[in-house]
Amino acid sequence: MNGRRPHPQPLSQRERGEKIIVATTNQHKLREIGEILGRRVTGHGIRVRENGKTFEANAIKKVKAIKIKPGEIAIADDSGLMVNCLNGKPGVKSARFATPPTPENLCRKLLNVMRACRARGAKFVCAIAVAFPDGRIRVVKGIVHGRIVAEIRGGKGFGYDPVFRPCGYQKTFAEMSPAMKNRLSHRGLALKKLKQLLSN
Ligand code: IMP
Predict the structure, then answer these.
(1) What's residue 1's pLDDT?
(2) DSSP states of the chain as a string?
(3) Nearest CA to ligand 1 atom 5
(4) How far is ligand 1, taken at its centre, from the CA of residue 126, in Å?
(5) Per-residue pLDDT at 60 exceeds 80
């Protein structure tokens, strides 16, 4: 020993115990985020017009709308379905693709507009923006590729789950257990990247 104190390692976000604020009031989303991050998270209702051209732009807009205090970090996500033969639609307008936007209406409208499409490739995309107390903003993304099936299948999940079958699987997301869907999904993948980012 040379008598000097060891150089302290920088503390990780978990060790510093920063509070995580999530821009959502959706309890389902909050629970999923908390479970995957292994952290307690707090929901925060915000109102912004999600009129960005990309998922990233909308996630950043939402996260900037949260005023964080010292010791807090904020998270916001935006996600949706992009269908190849529709040139990426419904995309950022996924939630508003049918009126009223019930899961059944969204799926029926999608199958309807895809009647003439022989190529059925599609992907779910999720962008998560994180705002740190020092003003930095980072974005992580998760993508799951798959196909749009010919008919609505399964009763679990939400949104377009009954018409999306991920590559390499026979079941649609709506036919899978929530745990299985979380392992494969765009949101699950983005959250795993976020967990990695927060532990660095
Ligand atoms: P938001 O990111 O919560 O605004 O979701 C946008 C829309 O994309 C939702 O309303 C759904 O219609 C669709 N969507 C996003 N993620 C999923 C998913 O995991 N399954 C099915 N539909 C989804």
Answers:
(1) 42
(2) --SPPPPPPPPPHHHHTPEEEES---HHHHHHHHHHHTS-EEE---------SSHHHHHHHHHHTS-PPTTEEEEEEEEEEEEGGGTT-BGGGGGGSSSS--HHHHHHHHHHHTTT-S--EEEEEEEEEEE-TTS-EEEEEEEEEEEE-SS---SSSSTTGGGEEETT-SS-GGGS-HHHHHHHSHHHHHHHHHHHHHH-
(3) 79
(4) 9
(5) yes
Determine if the pTM surpasses 0.85: yes
Catalytic residue among 18, 56, 77, 78: 78
Predicted confidence (pLDDT) per residue in 129-165, tens digit: 999 988 999 999 999 999 999 999 999 988 999 999 9
Q: Residues near ligand 1 with C-beta < 6 Å?
A: 77-81, 94-95, 106, 124, 157-161, 173, 185, 187
pLDDT digits (tens, 9 = 90+) for 106-130: 999 999 999 999 999 999 999 999 9
| Interval between CA 67 and ligand 1 midpoint (Å) | 25
CATH fold for domain 13-199: Maf protein (3.90.950)
Residue nearest to atom 15 of ligand 1 (CA): 80
Active site residue 77: no
